[in-house]
């Protein structure tokens, strides 16, 4: 009863208020409706990046202010907007709801769930567009992202806060590398965000299913703007994913965002720009296409302790045509990121999977983040592979080779063999170290090439049972000590027989 | 049709002038025909210039008025209030 009384009192108070707040609002009229874009008149005092609300209830985002008209991209359904409709300025900028509830969910770029579950309960709203943290708020990248892929962790290591591009033709396993990395983050305290841009819904569904089955969905957020969504949503998706990542980063956590892929993002932005009649440049992309990606990827960083010490790692994906790395968008993104993992069709078809071209792949900051154990074994591996590449090209024309060259070729072939890895089967750090150690110390030199995989499986099986203490020790200490190597040598030799 | 470049600038100026007139126009839309007394109250309370005001009737407003001048709008109609309410309910649900 008491509650009811209080309610009545409030209502009475409201009714007695003679002064009512009257708000002046900005309105405009729809002049043109294009594919996901409208041009309006009016809206004299609207700001860039402001949300406007159409008569039909749809919302738009102002991204073009000219002398006579205002250009806005429509968020969601634009079929119910007609010429002459009014649009109201709301005075808000576009933001996504963020909270811990997002983990395990599939949402669209404006924060609406698309997995058929409840609405996201927001803790706060993070603006989609945000200026990246300044220089003084950052610190160097020193903590590794354990991808669980031997070739990457050994040769192109990725650090938390780094931006590493995954580039290659279609069907070379770009998404697989990104997904394997996500799968390997169980118990690694790294929150993952998978942003699907312009992909088939069936592919997104199978990705989500894979994550769910492997128990990876509980620390993952999926942001999707599929091929059937408007170009507007595809354009906004990576920024929304980044905003979600920043929420976790600002809480002092580590987050990883996969943008799959930025080629389609550039296409979506090109479409919007052309419809807005902005001048077209090379390959019909607008002039600010570089800034489109640089401002997105610049948001990846490692914050210093005063800012909470969180990090945001970015793994953008770019699809090339015929392996052409010097096309417009690939060169742009290569220059923005801190290195790239280059995948090749020829290698893929030759059975080298992941099809990483070791010569073209680099990581500009990751070496500082590599664990001691990996550094110990990877140094030699890198050298061996580099020599192998030199010799292999050179020796194609020679029939009789000297002993040393033969040895290089032999070692290199086994190294290449040992870096092959099955899909969705990430390794732990200790497993990677052990396998690479065995190869780079020459224990496999006498083994037939087709027996390498068999040996690897046998070795890992044995280590899982009898060598468990050793594996645990390497995993914990993150380095190889003298006695570890002695023990390892014994186990490897046992397995070779 | 091609426009002679010599008169293009003048034409632009003329259209701008016309646009300015439209922009300055005040439209008051109400749910029913306003009495002179009511009109006077609205005009004096908002400090609008008398004369260049267009009155419209739209029964869909149910009650209250909407005042439009240029790209600005003051919505004190029941319809607007209800729409706002609906919005708040949807957002908080």
From TrEMBL, chain A:
Q: Which regions form coiled coils?
A: 1-28
Q: InterPro entries under this entry? A: ATP_synth_asu-like_sf (IPR023366), ATP_synth_asu_C (IPR000793), ATP_synth_asu_C_sf (IPR038376), ATP_synth_F1_a_nt-bd_dom (IPR033732), ATP_synth_F1_asu (IPR005294), ATPase_a/bsu_AS (IPR020003), ATPase_F1/V1/A1_a/bsu_N (IPR004100), ATPase_F1/V1/A1_a/bsu_N_sf (IPR036121)
Q: Name one Pfam family in it.
A: ATP-synt_ab
Where in the cell is the protein located? Cell membrane; Membrane
Catalytic activity entry = ATP + H2O + 4 H(+)(in) = ADP + phosphate + 5 H(+)(out)
Listed under GO cellular component are: plasma membrane; proton-transporting ATP synthase complex
> Which residue numbers delimit the ATPase F1/V1/A1 complex alpha/beta subunit nucleotide-binding domain?
148-363
- Domain named ATP synthase alpha subunit C-terminal is located at 370-492
Q: Enumerate the residues marked as the site Required for activity.
A: 361
Keyword ATP-binding carried by entry: yes
Instruction: Write down the EC number.
Output: 7.1.2.2
Q: How does it sit in the membrane?
A: Peripheral membrane protein
One GO MF term on file is: ADP binding
Listed binding positions for ATP are: 168-175
Residues annotated as domain ATPase F1/V1/A1 complex alpha/beta subunit N-terminal: 24-91
Its function, per the record, reads: Produces ATP from ADP in the presence of a proton gradient across the membrane. The alpha chain is a regulatory subunit.
Concerning HAMAP family, the annotation shows: ATP_synth_alpha_bact
Q: What is this protein called?
A: ATP synthase subunit alpha
UniProtKB/TrEMBL annotation, chain B:
This protein's source sits in the domain of life called Bacteria
What compartments host this protein? Membrane
Q: Keyword Membrane: yes or no?
A: yes
InterPro entries to which the protein is assigned, alphabetical: ATPase_OSCP/dsu (IPR000711)
Q: What's a single GO MF annotation on this record? A: proton-transporting ATP synthase activity, rotational mechanism
Its cellular-component GO annotations read:
membrane
User: Major place of localization?
Assistant: membrane
**Keywords, alphabetical:** ATP synthesis, Hydrogen ion transport, Ion transport, Membrane, Transport
**Entry annotated with the keyword Membrane:** yes
Q: Which PANTHER family does this entry report, sorted A to Z?
A: ATP SYNTHASE DELTA CHAIN
Q: What is this protein called?
A: Uncharacterized protein
Which species does this protein come from?
Answer: Candidatus Roizmanbacteria bacterium RIFCSPHIGHO2_01_FULL_39_8
Taxonomy, top ranks, is: Bacteria, Candidatus Roizmaniibacteriota
